[in-house]
């Protein structure tokens, strides 16, 4: 499968527009074209050990959930481990692709997989995603009517304003008089100029200003708020999570006034580092990989218990599920393998 065809298919599976704006997603390293991908190699973190595994298994493209290139590289030498990853990849003609928070947002992604550890439940995104391409331009729509004889003057002044788009005119009747309706999209900055222009003269009537809001995408977004079918004790939830993540232990902070036998009906979760996503959410339980000490204290003080499993432990198990769904999505055209060396860097001594 040609690399560019595969990247297009991966982008269809999880549109990169769903990723957080601070993220670095997509094709990060590309061998010189043409580049055929026979083997796709999945990993949560691309370490040097994992890279050597990919080389040994003759991978043509590495899909690394976490982007190995995040901060900009000023040079590519043998000095730092991330630079060496790029060197090794290009030496062996291996591309590197990272979806990261795009996989967090999609309905069939990492956070949805993590909800399965709670048992039977329904879930909604904590921070829903909006349709990235609607409206195409502008944050506001302005509509007003003007006398036909003054239309050219008004349009000329409006066209001098920057960040105006979708400017259209149509016939209208106001109070029995033939007029022209002018409609335009504009940015917040341009809106102030448009309003100032219209307030300077009496060449317009019946002005409407609409806020253009992008529609929410169903079941798509960051984090999940889960409502269990039946309340379950915190101790039972702990065992379910350990089983789902295949962990011998987790870390638990019991909310003030709660015990291990307290019922859990609502759980808010976020794979990876969930402090910013979970903060302020009303729930019986927060489930994530890591949180700051003070955010844990805040949650506990509010009677919310917290389960922490280490960052990548809340993500890595998704790779097995991803293997199967990608195989179907790509119509079994390529070989897909999951890293055996990839693991969380933190161990219990």
Automatic annotation (TrEMBL):
GO terms for molecular function: metal ion binding. InterPro entries: DUF34/NIF3, DUF34/NIF3_animal, DUF34/NIF3_sf. Its main location: cytoplasm. It comes from the Eukaryota. It is found in: Cytoplasm; Nucleus. Gene3D superfamilies: NIF3 (NGG1p interacting factor 3)-like. GO terms for biological process: regulation of DNA-templated transcription. Keywords: Acetylation, Cytoplasm, Metal-binding, Nucleus, Phosphoprotein. The keyword rRNA-binding does not apply. The keyword Transcription does not apply. One of its GO terms (cellular component) is mitochondrion. A divalent metal cation binds at residues 66, 104, 311, 315. May function as a transcriptional corepressor through its interaction with COPS2, negatively regulating the expression of genes involved in neuronal differentiation. Homodimer. Interacts with COPS2. Interacts with THOC7. PANTHER family: NGG1 INTERACTING FACTOR 3, NIF3-LIKE PROTEIN 1. Belongs to the GTP cyclohydrolase I type 2/NIF3 family. This is NIF3-like protein 1. It comes from Cephalopterus ornatus.
